[in-house]
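TA notes. Do not distribute before section.
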Amino acid sequence: MSSFGTIFRVSTYGESHCKGVGCIVDGCPPGIPLVENQIQKQLDRRRPGQSNLTTPRSESDTIQIFSGTEFGTTLGTPIGLFVPNRDHRPADYSETQVVPRPSHADYTYLAKYGLKASSGGGRSSARETIGRVAAGAIAERVLELTYGVEIVAWVSSVGEIEAPLMDEWDVVTRDQVDKNELRCPASDDIVERMRKEILAAREAGDSIGGTVTLHIRNPPIGLGEPCFDKLEALLAHAMLSIPATKGFEIGSGFAGTRMRGSRHNDAFVQKGAKFGTVTNHSGGVQGGISNGETITVRVAFKPPATIAASQNTATYDGVESVLANRGRHDPCVVPRAVPIVEAMGALVILDALMIQEARNALVQRIPVHIKSEIDRRLTCKPPSQSGNKHVVENGQEAKNGGSDDR
């Protein structure tokens, strides 16, 4: 489907070669200051033609707000957003009427619907993500104003070249990310190696993949719904819906499978006025619910399917053929994918927050005498104040041989 979210709900529309693309944002709270240039900042980071590392398609991607605001403030009604398509070349795709592009959506869309867009990628094109980025910019605005949530993503690998893990990633800013066209805040040497790798793929008429890392800082505690709408499940759904994605990790991810539980477990500790964890292998989510630590996610992007080099393939009739694409394409999508990943993260967090806020608001209306009785029954006893470590296991004093009841 083309809609995402439960309360803060976004529906995107448009194809790569139609008159334009955009989205409808429903459920945005009223009273949020919002004007076009606050959305445009993120669209400018996503737009094509930024450097020789991206597609040469020239689009300004200028956003227009059609509805849902007045005098620079949201009204609480659906927000209509539109971006025109101006630099499309349908003639570059004439061969795809006969020959499906390898690893593209031509064949699967035709098999599913019985027809497909005659040029471009249709709904599978990355042009569709314009609506996501625009809606995500609005979601970020709400999160920043209400809870001070900060969302930052960056390129963490290109091909086999990886930015090393550093403590500095915990505080890296968007300004630091945007200091180079790769959107990688690593050392100049790492960035230059990544740049050469992308340019080498382009020179060969080929493409290359990479990864994007996302940090969501200062998230509210308690977001996520057991069991099927766990926060990491919602984030995975969001990220893997982005074109060209092939993998998702949260926290320690697959590396955690090589660790023992004694090392992987995040011990709790009092951090001044905040209760938190010493480490963050959980990636800010435990039991499917946010714990207040930074939510850390990594998203893998495949090499773009559209390449200039000739490829052996077959026509729709099964006749062997050779296809050389003439369409413009990114040799590597990760530099432009950064704001898309940020947008999808913002959409998930705000929707989960609005669900939790609705629950909390209703709980506040429970009669006081009933709440007092419930609180008396459920209040946890504090740890022993004797000065010794208070060890408990499964709710009882620790004994040898305890384990989870599975």
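Switch to the second chain here.
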Amino acid sequence: MRMRSAILSVFLIGLVDGLAFTNGPSRTRFQKTALSMATSGALNCRPIGVGSAAPKTVVTNDDLENIVETNDEWISSRTGISQRRLLTHFKGEEGEEKENLVTISQEAAANALEMSGLDALDIDMVICCTSSPDDMFGDATSIAAGIGCKNAVAFDITAACSGFLFGSVTAGQFLHNKSIKNAIVVGADALSRWVDWDDRNSCILFGDGAGAVVYTASDEPGMLGYSAHSNGLGHDDLMLGYKGEKRMIATPGEGTELSSGSYDNISMNGRGYKGEKRMIATPGEGTELSSGSYDNISMNGREVYKFATREVPVVLKEALEAANMTVDDIDWLLLHQANIRIIDIVAERLGIPKEKIITNLKNYGNTSAGSIPLALDEAVRSGQVKKGDIVACAGFGAGLSWGSTILKWG
């Protein structure tokens, strides 16, 4: 029990400090500082319910031809995306139903809860994995309250496109240790809020969506092995940074310039936090601070592609090794839905045939932390994934972060 608690602490510290955590030897060639800890791999918890939700508004590749210089063939051949869902009713104007990240997350979680057969009061923990919350202080408590999880502790995890898997492992540790009995892990993002709609390289990629999985403590493992890494040295390859603008407040002397808070768009050439100047009355000319906001997403596409196609096959093998399994034991491969070329090359390098790949990228685009549970929900409800199937999952994205979990469904 103490060992598992210690492992969880090290795992969380590793995420915060930008180190690497794995339950097998670290093989990441570009990590200057790495933390490696061996575990048995398997966690005694099972996924017993899954749900998803997506915004009502659909934007196709043909629609984007009216916004930027592009076309369906150019987008689909390079990304595998044909359309995406976008949140457009954040506040809910008169006659409109409010639709934001919390509402679609609540819907996804409620659907997962219904499939699990549990009551909302049976849930002990709700984790929201997101990089684009409605509330910068976190959405998990609102999600939990909205579906009636009155007995649950709720908190957010930010690990970009790796978030859902990191959140699942975190919940799995609590469940394995018998600290809790049932947990809901939500993966949700609304990266369309940060898209530069004049940049054809970025606006074609992202969509909004949410997915959720209910995990329950069990006597036998359902999370068979996992491995997770992060490398802050690659931070600048994919980021959405702070960009402040000067703001003056009244202080002795010439004053202090601050910035007022807000967030900006996603961009392939992104910057960071974006603030606007604001002066407040103080003695003298004031102090210059910065007003809060964030700028566009910045992504070095070539480096991210190289990183993903290099590290994802390795982290999947690490998780399989921890589970005492091989690639031949996998029924399904489910990767973060970022780009069809990345998905195909990872499968090829692992020797996994295309008929074992789960993907819905075509219809949703890159929904970041939402992509894995959203695709899993469709696969389970369609009968593609059946009880007892082995699903090898892997996420990768900003941080840089990447991880894999081997799940036995049901």
